[in-house]
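The following record pairs a protein chain with its ligand, iron/sulfur cluster.
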Amino acid sequence: APAPPPARHLFSDPAEVEALRRNLLAWYDRCKRDLPWRALVRGDIGKQGPALLPAVWVSEIMLQQTQVATVIDYYTRWMQKWPTLQALAQASLEEVNELWAGLGYYSRGKRLQEAARKVVSELAGRMPRRAEELQKLLPGVGRYTAGAIASISYGQATGVVDGNVIRVLCRLRCIGADSSSPAVIDHLWDMANVLVDRSRPGDFNQALMELGATVCVPKSPLCGECPVKQHCQAWRRNLFGKAPPVPDVEDCGVGDCPLCPPATEPWDSSLGVTNFPRKAAKKPPRAMRTATCVLERRGCHGAPEYLIVQRPSSGLLAGLWEFPSVPLAQDLQEEKEREELADHLQAWMGQPVAAKGLQFIGEVIHIFSHIHQTYVVYSLHLDGDVTLDPALSPSRWVTEHEFHASAVSTAMKKV
Ligand code: SF4
């Protein structure tokens, strides 16, 4: 069996664990933010009638990759529209995408709805309550979301590890190895499961995440106000200790310890507690270029209408609507880009489109998580009527107002 991690990276004193739980929960009771999903949590449990959609499930899925301030409005509209698992199971993907429009990472909404369908059709409408089952049975529910639902909605004493928790725990125990490595992640999960309060697991987990979101923040943590500073090794080290010139017992023999910073990047006193956590450098996003055309015609009441087409049901922005677009090879001449777009439109409209007729409008840049996307935007006004080929993807003409109410991405709204 591998050797246990050195003591400085563990919580092995039960009295300290008790004290940390007490201090953190007392702070949470005093200082927690008033968020709509917190008000609903108690109502999730033990209601008669159709099974309610667990508030924390929806909020946690929305909060992956998205700020709290943005999520609140989406969350509120979602819960008003689909308060129960049955209601969500009956929704169409189109409705889900329309409500999700602008929140990004659209597969999250799709999977939430698929999971609700699965609970209703395969699990007799009964929501799994334990983290292991949630993760195993529900699409889109990973280890973190499963732990959050099980502890917050159903009271299971199980820990959670998200970005905020990673930062807090790495600082509490001076973990400076790459925080995305499996060894560190496994260790943090073990630690979260040791620390979680047995009688208030949901509140404890929310408190730890809240601490990371409001006090132990990435750049300038407010250590002076921190309720657990006396348990924090990074804070103690910043206050009392300089990095020793040679590795000592305190540093577990830098170089060998799988949880310490690598010997090549030791403690930097100018960074203080923000020495932790550390992450391997991210891969730069992939550059992509897409030509897109805003096709405009006069509608029956004289108001302009625009053509939007639906994307395939899998892959990036699955099922969303966009202006007719075609991916471009890198480094094409402008003239060639225009021709490619004209050919693409020709296939849609079944009639010749002159590349020269396309008016260049400008470029729009949008960053997806892993793609640096440039849309080269053209417009084309149509006089006569156009018959679209029904064999191609679904398409429709919309007014500007209808466009904004449709399931379109933020990138297309920019276009
Ligand atoms: Fe984070 Fe500072 Fe609190 Fe440590 S003392 S947990 S670094 S805010």
